[in-house]
From TrEMBL:
Source organism: Chamaesiphon polymorphus CCALA 037
Protein name: Aldo/keto reductase
Domain of life: Bacteria
InterPro entries attached to this UniProt entry: AKR2_Oxidoreductase, NAD(P)_OxRdtase_dom_sf
């Protein structure tokens, strides 16, 4: 795909059933969904730049219906910068497709004093009018006090007419979109401490919660996902990361002791595992190529996992972390696939 062809492309809608109000069966995964209480319509697969994806392949992902993009301006910026050209094309001032893109950015500098500098870096690098979700990144066990200070800025950061919007306007100039949206529309946080994530779930200062979740690390299910009511339209948006990786290794690698012929999940299956959980809106991925993007979008089209598949992948994850011995697993819990 040529970058100059982007503006002439018609809107993409991979799930027309939603606009037609056709009831979606329980095990289907609508490609687009509302991100919690925000008014953002996001693809269930998000794309981050941590895998070093190129701008051309980022635009390919957009062409395939992925509209949620995650960008870092500080930590790992060298890796993320390879997608910057695509994000600039999609989101810069005057872009004809800006309203079809959800741009999430992150700063890992957890200090209210540098919030303006972090924002300015992102605005100048990408040439943008506004950010859809600004994340405070890597909130760990020792960050409780600093994070509380950061969230106290929420009402000054998000929405139109804020102090930060007026300051950004003085630095980069006024635009209609900046006036309408504000410099930042919503506030998110990426948690590495689930107790802190749980503590802030009901806060009006936090709009989107991102946590690690995969078949080998499932604590977010009890501490975050299952603490939310899917029918509560005022709940925060939920995103996962690290769905296919663990300190025990790549989760598509066969764990020691798994009997021959047992189901070995693909990376798209691992994405589906997270997206099959209660209230998970987006699975953030590190896809790197058109082949990986195609495999993921086709995999998601298979829908949610069944409960038997979810239970099996829990066992699979425990084998990865050496929490189970194969002789302790009832044979009826195993799933065999050729």
């Amino acid at each position: 795909m040529k970058i100059n062809d982007l503006e002439s492309r018609p809107p993409i809608n991979l799930d027309d059933r939603q606009s037609l109000n056709i009831k979606v069966p329980e095990l289907e995964l609508p490609h687009y969904r509302k991100l919690g209480r925000t008014d953002l319509k996001v693809s269930c697969l998000g794309l981050g730049g941590g895998g070093g994806i190129s701008s051309a392949d980022t635009l390919y992902a957009f062409d395939r219906g992925i509209n949620y993009f995650f960008y870092s301006s500080d930590l790992h910026h060298y890796l993320y910068s390879s997608m910057a050209g695509a994000l600039k094309k999609l989101c810069q001032r005057g872009s004809a497709v800006r309203d079809r893109v959800v741009l999430a950015t992150v700063t890992y500098i957890k200090s209210p004093e540098v919030a303006l500098a972090a924002l300015l870096d992102q605005f100048l690098e990408l040439g943008i009018d506004y950010i859809d979700v600004l994340f405070w990144g890597w909130i760990g066990t020792n960050d409780a006090a600093a994070f509380a200070d950061c969230l106290n800025l929420s009402n000054d950061l998000r929405g139109p007419g804020t102090v930060y919007q007026r300051t950004i306007e003085k630095m980069i100039g006024v635009s209609d979109r900046l006036k309408k949206m504000g410099a930042v529309r919503y506030i998110g946080a990426s948690f590495h401490d689930l107790d802190l994530a749980h503590q802030w779930l009901d806060s009006s200062l936090l709009d989107v919660v991102m946590v690690r979740h995969n078949v080998a690390h499932r604590s977010a299910q009890s501490q975050v996902f299952n603490c939310l009511d899917a029918q509560n339209f005022d709940r925060p948006g939920i995103s996962t990361f690290k769905s296919a990786g663990s300190h025990s290794g790549a989760l598509w690698d066969i764990p020691e002791g798994l009997p021959a012929g047992c189901w070995i999940p693909s990376v798209p299956d691992l994405y589906r595992y997270s997206l099959s959980q209660n209230c998970v809106d987006v699975c953030l991925t590190g896809m790197r190529s058109p082949a990986e993007i195609d495999a993921a979008t086709l995999g998601i089209a298979q829908g949610k996992l069944t409960q038997a598949e979810i239970d099996y992948l829990g066992i699979y994850g425990d084998l990865h972390r050496k929490r189970l011995q194969i002789q302790d697993i009832p044979t009826e819990k195993l799933i065999y696939r050729s």
